[in-house]
Amino acid sequence: PVGTLVKDESSTFLGKPIIWKIADINHEGYPENSVTLITEKCIAMRSFDAVESSNSNSDRKSYGNDKYSVSNIRQWLNSDAGAGQWYSSQHSADQSPNSTTYVTCNIYSDDAGFLNSFSSGFKNAIMSTTLTVALNTKTEGGGSETVTDKVFLASNTEVGSTNENSIVEGVKFPIFSDNASKIAYCTTEAIEDSDYSSDPSSDTTAWQWWLRTPYASVSYGPRLLSTSGSLSYTYAKNGYIGVRPLCNIPSSTIISEKPDEDGYYRLLF
Hints:
The protein is mainly β. The protein is built from five helices and 16 strands.
């Protein structure tokens, strides 16, 4: 049922199996006969997009780009490339997150793509999902665009927050009923991996996490959920914000009959 925790022992990040929560089953607007998974916790702290020093927009030149379709985080989440191989320029002013000149902390240009340590069974099972993403009114003229991804971030609408600039970005997930249900934490591995000067003190410390939605009034500020679960935003370059990805797999995927000793059902690809 929705809310169940599952894992594939052979699909890891930072050396440990990723724990997923079932966010919905046959979610409206998503692929038919699919189960939507969201990581139980933030699996890393990363910038949304690097500062673009050659961008003609002065804010993106200073703070990064809030357009999800060309963001560093989207490219990294959907890559299974080896270490240092996931990034390629998405537009003429694009910048890799390869220096603290461009991101505040947690440089990840030399990392492998997020999918690199997934099992072939899990990678083959992930379904392509078409997503609606709002656009800011500052440089993009408002409205929305669509992207089709294997792995993605949630939107304002999907977590039950206010529709950005009245753009409906999907349908709310049933696991998000109030602000308390939106509060997230980081894995121990994410905290140990981070070089931020004020990391969460433990994996039970509430932490902020990225959404794919931009704050419509600016060109540099993706939305996020704060430590209280309320909607906020910050500079795209800020590398200390949590990353809590989602994906869809077929509802025919087999799981173990019983949970393991830690309470997780095993995905059997």
